[in-house]
Write a structure and sequence with these properties.
2 copies of one chain form a homodimer.
Chain A: E1 4-9, H1 13-23, E2 28-35, E3 50-53, E4 66-69, H2 77-85, E5 89-91, H3 100-114, E6 117-119, H4 128-139, E7 143-149, E8 152-153, H5 155-162, E9 167-176, H6 178-185, H7 194-197, E10 198-206, H8 212-220, E11 230-235, H9 238-244, E12 250-260, E13 266-276, H10 279-299, E14 304-306, H11 321-327
Parallel strand pairs in A: 1-2, 1-4, 2-3, 4-5, 5-6, 6-14, 10-11
Antiparallel strand pairs in A: 7-12, 8-9, 9-10, 12-13
Helix pairs in contact in A: 1-10, 2-3
Chain lengths: ~325, ~325
């Protein structure tokens, strides 16, 4: 068995998810955590993992086979991934869909310059959902794609609510509209507006004496985040929020509905769906599998930026090709 | 755009499905049909397709880029695929799971000897279901796999009923047990016996004067096919069978349920499901996408036998890597 020595840059929810995933895979050995906090304040689950300052990354290029970047897509990864890809085989979960081509170009240039492999946008969307869209589209070229998210917590929307004056804390759930899901699953290929596909549920803790009506109005009219959706706002206490909304569940469905036949008389519906108790732990598990694949690509001498679209599925697995053919094919 | 010239060997339901799929893809050009019947008796949809005798295959090795083998797994493919892989880039849908390793070895040896690429076991199970099992297993190593088939027509079980004395015609549906599906989808990871997962519905046309009780007994006690299932037998007229059971629908779900977290406290459920109006047309569409991938592998100079596990997903698509990243990732 080939062992892959893993380093993690950034030890928030996602970094912790990668750490937990490494514990489930005998061939993935977490050896180093890199943090921008004081290393003495960071405590990984296993004593065998050394914590370094992020500034010392370059000194440890030979200590890890794959560096998994667990920063945010808005502020961290656009700089971190290209910088690290010059020195390390890297994997990230860059998820700002509109900026993927630009991110790819920058990471690809850096990785080629450094003779490294980089895998970007690994996770579930982008990631597993993207694969579902790609495969189904190749099989059913005449059809339509539908992606539903939820029921699950949107961190970005929760943060947007927390920035409103008078809000102490908040949790936002994205919820697919059941009738829309059913219509798509039936193969009808409906045209659906943003409002028809998802609703948004907001659980808000207000500061004492805050103007609740003003908070609600600020939420439901917020451009880009809420104005195109049917949004419900429920004010609850901090205790209720902590008790009932502490988890980070998510999920959703990618559905492709298409036709075949002489006159398109046969309908087919392909659905890939996820129900996740922990968004960051599932995403971390995808990153871990991609780290294994990245190490294999690097051992083959490949360089440059890749996505899940470019990776033979077997490369994600610790099992041999023979084993996979005999037991999973 | 690279054009791929397709040949089809065997023009039954599956061959017809591949033919229809080629019409949906501008880059796939069906140029030749090879048949064991009298070529004059075979009429492809387009006049531009030439029909040849299967015996003349070798003379046309330069006329097609990929030969799609549409024979049966029991009797045709074990001989056809290795024989053809010496001369052609080939794709087949070999689906006898237990014999895949042996088939792979024979096809691999033949393809390497001929300097060709072969893709075997393309379809939905094996095929898309196998990919679903592989990906989900890589992400959630601590978990369980469940595959449900149906509601759909099993050709093999229908044939088995037709071989019973007194049976004129029959159609068998494999049906998942709803309670079992729900239990798995909830993340419970139940242990399920064969009987608990699927039921079998048989619609039988009896010959005049046949002993219906004897036929029913012969069906429900038939080893391997029915004895381990709860089976219902309904006798109907030939008219009813032709009217209500003419289609070849199928589908099913691959579900992986697994846990992450410090103590496995977070459950995740990954489901890939298909609802297909036409089993052979969907399978034919998978074969067509794999033919595109096979041609690309061949152009790269690769040789030997591959499965969907070995193929970068983007190779199945006619779209460029840039286009896929910008619009599907």
């Amino acid at each position: 068995m080939v062992k892959t020595r893993i380093g993690i840059l950034g030890y928030g929810n996602l970094g912790r998810g990668v750490e937990l995933a490494c514990r489930q895979n005998d061939d993935l050995e977490l050896v180093a955590l890199f943090t921008r906090r004081d290393p003495a304040s960071v405590h990984p689950l296993a004593d065998s993992v050394t914590v370094y300052a992020a500034d010392d990354l370059a000194a440890h290029a030979d200590d890890v086979d794959v560096l998994v970047l667990c920063g945010g897509s808005a502020n961290d990864l656009p700089e971190q991934t290209p910088a690290c890809a010059q020195l390390f085989t890297v994997v990230d979960s860059f998820d700002t869909h509109a900026n993927i081509p630009a991110h790819f170009a920058q990471v690809d240039a850096a990785a080629r310059e450094g003779g490294q492999v980089a895998i970007i946008s690994a996770g579930w969307d982008p990631g597993m959902f993207s694969l579902a869209r790609l495969y189904a589209g190749c099989i059913l070229p005449e059809g339509g794609d539908y992606t539903f998210w939820g029921r699950g917590v949107s961190q970005g929307h929760s943060d947007a609510i927390r920035r409103i004056p008078g809000v102490a804390d908040a949790r936002q759930y994205t919820v697919p509209v059941p009738e829309a899901l059913e219509a798509v699953r039936s193969g009808q290929m409906p045209e659906l507006s943003t409002r028809q596909k998802h609703t948004r549920e907001c659980y808000v803790v207000a500061e004492e004496g805050a103007d609740l009506a003003a908070i609600e109005r600020a939420i439901v009219t917020m451009p880009n985040y809420f104005d195109e959706y049917d949004t419900t706002v429920t004010f609850i206490s901090q205790e209720e929020l902590d008790r009932d909304h502490a988890g980070i569940p998510h999920g959703g469905s990618v559905i492709r509905s298409g036709v075949t036949g002489e006159q398109g008389e046969h309908r087919h519906v392909v659905e890939y769906s996820l129900k996740l108790d922990s968004n960051p732990e599932f995403t971390g598990s995808v990153l871990a599998a991609c780290a294994r694949a990245a190490h294999r690509l690097a051992r083959e001498g490949q360089t440059g930026c890749k996505t899940l679209f470019d990776i033979p599925p077997a490369y994600l697995s610790p099992r041999s090709a023979e084993d996979l053919r005999a037991h999973l094919l």
